[in-house]
From TrEMBL:
Protein name: diguanylate cyclase
Annotated transmembrane regions: 21-39, 45-62, 69-89, 95-112, 119-136, 148-173
UniProt source species: Marinobacter orientalis
Alphabetical list of NCBIfam families matching this protein: GGDEF
Keyword terms, alphabetized: Membrane, Transmembrane, Transmembrane helix
Reactions that this protein is recorded to catalyse: 2 GTP = 3',3'-c-di-GMP + 2 diphosphate
Domain called GGDEF: residue spans: 214-347
Coiled coil location: none
EC primary class: transferase
Record EC number: 2.7.7.65
Keyword Protease: no
CDD domains, A to Z: GGDEF
Length: 354
């Protein structure tokens, strides 16, 4: 049943909270069982035994992902229990507050149209109960003192449950936002910035560069013969290599450096406050770290992994693309000159100077 309902399947945290609520509600009902015996209201006392049984079944149903059955049981329990509580000992018992707990839960557990229909039904039931108690006296009234105690107890439980639900909603929304932001800005495999986000970040960095004139170095790093690694050891090993390469690049550069997965096996690093010579030194550091790392395939074979890199420095007349293009040209030269090396884009600079 649950598998056919994408709304229910898409909010697993809600169903975790529903399980907790079942535990909490069952505990409260056990307390009520003894309380109403003491207060001389046996019907309400025994209602709690049925309630606990319903919560146990609902809890187990949630565990088996039978969410439809669970929500039906929880609904039935609260509606009957709240109704009986009000009819037997009066509106002043505060049992009706439990009905209000459904309002936020409805919107999380149902599609909008269903939630609105259920909300209208809930409102009708709540109002009908209220009006009924205008015309009839409670069927099993209890003394004013205990009635006040029951009211305060119910009010406190509803306060606690609302707080818990509100805390849950805020936590869920915050974590969903964080996840969305991460998905929108990072590459899932390596955890580095993705190309789109990197472009935004670098544009900001370059605006800063234009203001204060500090140098910015661009490093384009590309794994050599990566296709052969994939072909020989499989795509999964290729993925693991990419993750590890990203990790090593990160550790070898500074925290303020911006690093992205720019293409399949190509990485872009933008180093603020770094001239072309320092950029070259950083690229060399990365290249050596990757060269000396022990790259082992799952079968224990050693993988020979090297990278080639091209380095350029941002110039006042550049835009993002022209600076990257120069680093790319240097990278091509590294590949042409035999790979496993770092080249600078000096051609254009010489041309401009002459
Ligand atoms: N495992 C894995 N492979 C990828 C991924 N993205 C791109 N590739 C592979 O990277 C390889 C890149 O191959 P090429 O562009 O020929 O480059 P190369 O083999 O590294 O050769 P050179 O760059 O010339 O040294 C291709 O086989 C892609 O399938 C990825 O996310 N995971």
């Amino acid at each position: 049943m649950a598998a056919r309902n994408p709304v229910r399947e898409s909010r697993p945290q809600f169903w975790q909270v529903a399980k907790r609520c079942c535990q909490l509600a069952a505990t409260v009902d056990v307390a009520f069982f003894f309380l109403f015996h003491l207060l001389g209201s046996p019907i309400l006392a025994w209602v709690n035994v049925v309630s606990v049984a319903m919560y146990v079944v609902a809890y187990r149903a949630l565990g088996k992902k039978q969410n439809g059955l669970a929500i039906t049981l929880i609904w039935a329990e609260v509606i009957i229990h709240a109704g009986l509580g009000v009819v037997l000992i009066g509106w002043e018992s505060g049992f009706h507050y439990y009905l209000l707990m459904f309002i936020p839960a409805l919107f999380v557990s149902m599609r909008l149209r269903g939630a609105i229909a259920a909300l209208a039904g809930l409102w009708g039931y709540y109002v009908a109960l209220y009006l009924l108690m205008w015309f009839i006296e409670p069927l099993q009234p209890i003394a004013p003192g205990p009635l006040l105690g029951v009211y305060l107890f119910n009010l406190s439980v509803v306060f606690a449950m609302f707080s818990y639900l509100s805390f849950f909603y805020v936590t869920m929304v915050t974590s969903a936002n964080r996840k969305l932001r991460r998905m929108a800005t990072t590459d899932p495999l390596t955890g580095l910035f993705n190309r789109r986000h990197m472009t935004c970040l670098v544009e900001k960095e370059l605006a800063r560069f234009r203001r204060n004139g500090h140098p910015v170095a661009f490093l384009v790093l590309d794994i050599d013969h990566f296709k052969a690694i994939n072909d020989q050891y499989g795509h999964e090993t290729g993925d693991r290599v990419l993750e590890d390469v990203a990790g090593i690049i990160k550790t070898r550069l500074r925290t303020q450096d911006l690093i992205a997965r720019w293409g399949g096996e190509e990485f872009l690093a933008v180093l603020p406050d770094t001239g072309i010579q320092s950029g070259q030194a950083s690229a060399e550091r990365v290249r050596e770290a990757l060269l000396t790392h022990d790259w082992l395939a799952p079968n224990g074979e050693r993988i020979d992994l090297t990278i080639s890199a091209g380095v350029s420095e941002f110039r006042a007349e550049d835009d993002l693309n022209s600076a990257i293009n120069r680093a790319d040209r240097a990278l091509y030269r590294s590949k042409e000159l035999g790979r496993n090396r770092v080249e600078l884009e000096v051609v254009q600079e010489v041309a401009l100077q002459s």
